[in-house]
Amino acid sequence: MHIGLGTQFLCCFGLLALLGTSHGQQIDLSNQSWSAEVIRSDGQAIIPLFDGWYPNDDGSKTICFGHFNMNTEQSFDIPVGADNYLETDYPGLDLSNANVPTHFDPLPLAYRHVFCGFTVTVPAGFNTNHRITWHISSNRFDLNTPGKVIPPYVMDEPASDGRGDLAPLVKLAANGSGIRGRTGIHAGNEISANVGETVQLQAWIEHPDEEVWVGWAHHSGPGKVEFDNKEYEIQTSDGVATVQASFNEPGEYVVRMQTIDSIAAFEFYCCHTNAYFHINVSN
Fold first, then answer.
1. 8-state DSSP, 167
2. Which H, E and C letters describe 106-117, residue by residue?
3. How would residue 164 be classed by pLDDT, with cut points 50, 70 and 90?
4. Hey, which end of the chain has fewer CB within 10 Å, N or C?
């Protein structure tokens, strides 16, 4: 079971910590060391994180990536391209349709980094010698993390026998089929919306616990997305998570929903479910 790669990452932050005493100060990577002052309002980096991987029944494997915004106020929009891309040394693997995030909210103080915000499934032949590397450039820092399928980073998915955790079952239609786990579920039909108007997004959630946590986020798309309620808990006896979203620019968007029995369980890397809503916004 992979436990706390993100925690290990922060505790061994010598390479990436952004130490300084003045507002927005940046220090070259070669001169950085750990400090509790690395979190700032702005001027710091987006850290790409390899959260682990898990095997699938068909022999393929799924690699999980998360990220850490070291700014409490600064958000980023980084389109897929020279400053935000995946690369791999596995021959013939097409990454052009990977669900790479392009919007990065400020640091969520309650749970620090976005855990496994997107995944990439690789063929059975992808082995311990292969890598998928995520590159992000932000605030002049060019950072990357290699995703790999080595045994120390295997994750429990979608349940943990040791902790007794289970990822919530998520449906995107009341009578639809449900999915548990980080690979997630995508809305079958693209949702249409207009600039400045609200659109309602819903998910039906089942879990043995009495309540679960739900969080909504702007995953990708060109403009700004506003939610009426970004994070909350729902009673599983009701089982419906709803949010009102609005968009200030036309374009293709993805809204990400994550749900878990408790945000404290994120620290143990099990067990949450991702859901992705694809929205076409017109003028």
1. P
2. CCCCCCCCEEEE
3. confident
4. C
